[in-house]
Amino acid sequence: MRNLKLSDYVIEFLKEQGVHTIFGYQGGAITHLIDSIGKTDGVSFLSSYHEQGAAFAAEGYARVTNNIGVAMATSGPGATNLITGIGSAYFDSIPCLYLTGQVNTYEYKKSDGIRQVGFQETDIVSIVKPIVKFAKMIVDSKKIRFYLEKAVYLAKTGRPGPVLLDIPMDIQRAEVDIKNLCSYYDSQEYKDLSLDNNIEYMQHKVIDMLEVLKDSERPVILTGGGVRTANATEDLLRFIHYTHIPVVSTLMGLDGIDHQRPEFVGFIGAYGNRYANLTIANADVVIVMGSRLTSRQTSPNPNTFAREARIIHIDIDKHEMDRAVKSHLSIQGDLRKFLKVINETLSNITLHNNFEGWLSQINNYKKQYPSYPTQQELNAIDPNKMMKIISSMLDGKTIICTDVGQNQMWVAQSFEIKHGQRLLNSGGMGAMGFALPSAIGAYKASPDSTIIAIAGDGGIQMNIQELQTIVREKMPIKIFVVNNKALGMIRHFQEMYFDSCYLGTIDGYNTPDFIKLGEAYGILSYKISSYEQLWSIKDKLEDNYSYLFEIDLNNITYVIPKLSMGRPIEDQDPVVSREELKSNMIIPVLDK
Fold it and tell me: Which of 339, 368, 397 is the last residue of a domain?
């Protein structure tokens, strides 16, 4: 018989799952768990300076390792500070395990009519239930293996997402008999939940899909974040190799394909490349792979989206089928498994479609509407050209982490993602403050990669304390602060819809001296005000030091093109003449 302290068992379990870094912030209710990390070889604790930073770091780690990311926080404010990061992992389908400490079970309130008994006692399980796949407070030490296994299984299976286990202090310090711990995988609950790999169903759907493609002249593949989530990038490339169908991407799907491939067309949606939006608008078949088809992709009026195309929608989540856009063919299942089945079929047949005319039309769109320059007259540095230059200086082993706002859209429009590169965004939650801590998680997951964090002046200040983590751990992360001294995305809304009343975006908002701030943390910091200065930092992107580069822009910046309310995605601002739009449309132009 082998007895083990429960907190030691938790860390040993995580080590067996392949987790080598756990993120968090020390606190009274998790001291047992963190002490156990210190006693376990092969697992390290990376302390952030705010629990939100730890939560985002765990997400970055999970996305790069394709394994669970783990973050810990103490009870009360520590646990609630995780919530934004938990929501980010939930909406972007990232498998993370959040472990929170809790007051002793004998201190925990026994009645809903009582607000609090123990110090920092907070019912975090009830608070996070809408944004996790599973949450449980452990009140029986004998159940620890069952709930750890259940949590990790649910986090990684089906449509992935975060889970949370709340562990009271007396449970953490309890001794457990390892041999007598019950397993989730022996339970009827697990057997009932196990997914059936229905190959026959997929084979039938392959036949249906190929029948739709048979007569197509203008097909398009739309890739979403589900391509990466399913670990299906190589399978997608094989499918493209067989079919030569052009590919457009959502924000979350941008690193699912090498942008240097001739089939890649660009980024779609409200802030998408105009040429990509024209492509999908004129398609006769759209194969949606792992995308929710949100209003940012389709416009708020989804009836205008790819309106003369037959939609083939492949997704793991049945609830996303026909939710926004009616599909001609819905295929519910694991994207990677489906692509393997269809690729096996395509390896034995030849598609006779000739897409030369369609590809020529798409190339014409690209020539007409390049992503830059867009606003050189307003700034010495055009934001889109800036992103293109930064992109050109990075090799294939680079992970780019963006924040939320205009900086994120400029990256999406103009970065050229190379084979082997990753792009980490906060998509569904759209959380400012994501870039810096997710870059820390990405570095711990892949320390041999070049790690780039790109943030605006607003987003960087949300978790700027994590600069100290970078300095303390000697992480060679390269940080770009795109400083327009404004909250640019909302400022543009105010210009369009609120008579340019810039309250809270320019008026009542300002920024610190980021160069002095970076230096105060001990980071080598440089201001960039010209393309020559931008090109001069290339060697610094390849060395083993951290840097902060402040890119100086005017208050007035835009994401161009941008969709106004009420228009289909092919008709973005600045609006082109009706004659020009008609000349680029194969299907009829919508009346306003």
Answer: 368
